[in-house]
Sequence to fold (476 residues):
Amino acid sequence: MAAMDSLFPELSRITTTSLPDVAWEDDTTTTERMENFLNSALCVIHNLSKSIKHREKFRTAEMRKTLDIYKGSPSSLRRMYSLSAISYMADPHIDMSLLEDKYGAIVDLADYLDKSLIPGNSTGWSVQELVEGMANLAVHPFNKDQIIDNSLHLFYKILESNINKNLTCYVRHVLDRWGFSDVVVGSTTGLEQCQREKEIQIKSEQHHDYDTNKSTDNMQMLDNLQCVLSECDSFGTNEVMEIIGAVKRIVLDKTSNKQNVLKHFAMHEWPGLLVRIISDVWKPNKEVYTNEVLWSIITDTIDTMITYSDVDVECADILIEHGALAIMQEVADAYYHHFKQKIRALHDKVSEYRGENSGELKADNRQSKDPTKTNISTGQPGTDGYQSMGSTTQTNIPSVQEEADVHQSMGATQTNILIGQEGADGHQSMGTIQANVPSGQQGADGSQSMGPTQTNINNKSSSEISETREVILIVA
Fold:
């Protein structure tokens, strides 16, 4: 469905090789890296969309347009990121059309939820955010039907497995809201039970056995690395590449207390530094994707930003305040505009190949490669002759008409249309009727059917016509 209705149908596979009007020519590596960076930017936007404090920054016309574009992408991952972000930021009173899943993202979300419920299976999505996304999307009636059809059994599976008390509580609350809680035999519903389970979960998390010494070492290392970066005049260097790589490893370290490390991360202005690095290094040009140093810097930086933005809403708030949302939207928009540029360049290249000039066809005669006998004669300067394709069609069109439209169908037929009338239209369809319609009146229409028949239409105006325009006959 997405390939048919999206703004990115099959054209997503177009190459820009030898298309001169494109800012740069893509190769396989460049295209792949552009797409990967776009995916990361949309992932950050999705994480940031959970912010309640800065929700109005998502409800701009520009952001709505960006998310609406990518929710129809051929990429299932981009559809999911975009629609999930919409599920958080949309105002149901005015965004019901934006909320509606027209391209199958709910099916993708259900598939990822199914995979995420398999123990030890990593999909890059948490079960919690997948459930939250679908619960938010269910405010639209069509989406709710799709979610129930594709994911209701997975919601019950979460209740049965009871893998996380908070998650179990949330799923039970969602099913309550949808009117399905009574189907779960022996389940306790209501906010009181949810609150009790949440308190148990918090106490359990407080007893995790983290390596305290390693957490302390990591925080000290972050401080040292920040001091080095603060003295850099430019971020596009080998030294910065090594520093950002080290920061990424610290943030992703699962053996230390990540919560403490990332709180320290925020206190020492790392979120703002990450935004500055991407703003300085990333530019919408090919060098960013082909230079190994620059590419390593922006990928490690945005990976760190993804991890930090996914910790909690407070982290998302901090990143937005430092400009992360604006730069991520810029990345998404740049990819889309480059893609449109490729399409326009391809259109111009095809037009050039066909002998067209900027979409305007010159006066000439072109013959198809099919064995068709065609004869087109024009009696006035400035008219164009086009030859249609068929098996045994002979066509003769003299034209001295201003603003006349001539529409012809294809078939084993001989047709002669003489038009000398201003504003007259001749429309021909298929049939088995022979007709002869003379007309001397301005503004008259002659409609005739065509088949194995000869048709002659003579239209003449009462006055001479001093100027003619091009009459374009296109046979699809």
Remarks:
- The chain has a mean pLDDT of 73.
- The chain has two domains: 2-341, 361-476.
- Strands lie at 394-396, 406-407, 414-420, 426-430, 436-439, 446-450, 454-460.
- The radius of gyration is 32 Å.
